Amino acid sequence: MAVELRNQVPALTAVLSIVSLGAVFGAVGGVVPDGLLPRNESLIALIPHLNVVISATAIVTIGAGWRAIRRNNVARHRAFMLASFALFSLFLLLYLYRVSLEGPEPFTGPAAIEQFVYLPMLAIHILLAVCCVPLLFYVLLLAATRPVDALYLTRHRSVGQVAAVLWVVSFALGIGVYVFLYVLY
Asked: Which pLDDT score is estimated for 53?
């Protein structure tokens, strides 16, 4: 089974990416039918604040994972990167729940700040997050379908480096978006 999966990493990456991004765009686009999800008002109000903590924690775990692999500590690297992916998944589930029920949060600050600062920051955050999804699935699937020694013969390292940088920048910009929506305005 593992040998079969090992040969299907690009196809599995594509399928998982399409399903994941389809769920995100469907939720943001309002495709989720009313009444499908139970409403928990206190959770809905708490999600942005939980997600900013999750984002900050993910930045730390990604950095720790990168540091671990630079020191050739594969076990710690794996643990930190799996924790980072779990945090990302939790962030995404909470975000999708909230946006499915409430829609995207409107920006209430000045129009000039919205046009020249907030929207470009949001656009880059979204673009990087979308780009990260297939990269993350690819490196995770490579790691899950091969022994450690065989990973060095794949693109795990090079793709992982790109994914980690984009991931950190996306999380950091997400924190910036939070500051604009919930702290400054």
From this structure: 98
Q: CATH number of the domain that 117 lies in? A: 1.20.120
Dmax of the chain from CA atoms?
56
> Could you tell me the two tokens for 11?
């196809």
Instruction: State the total domains in the chain.
Output: 1
121 vs 116: CA distance, rounded Å: 9
Please indicate, yes or no, if residue 29 is contained in any of the structural domains: no
Please report how the helices 41-70 and 156-178 are oriented relative to each other, as an axis angle in degrees rounded to 10.
140
Angle subtended at Cα 63 by Cα 149 and Cα 155, rounded to the nearest 5 degrees: 35
In a domain, 178, yes or no: yes
CB atoms within 10 A of CB 52: 20
Question: Is 43:155 a contact under the CB 8 Å cutoff?
Answer: no
Q: Summarize pLDDT for 96-141 with one digit per residue, the tens.
A: 999 999 999 999 999 999 999 999 999 999 999 999 999 999 999 9
The answer as to whether 51 is a domain residue is: yes
Provide the domain limits for residue 90.
36-184
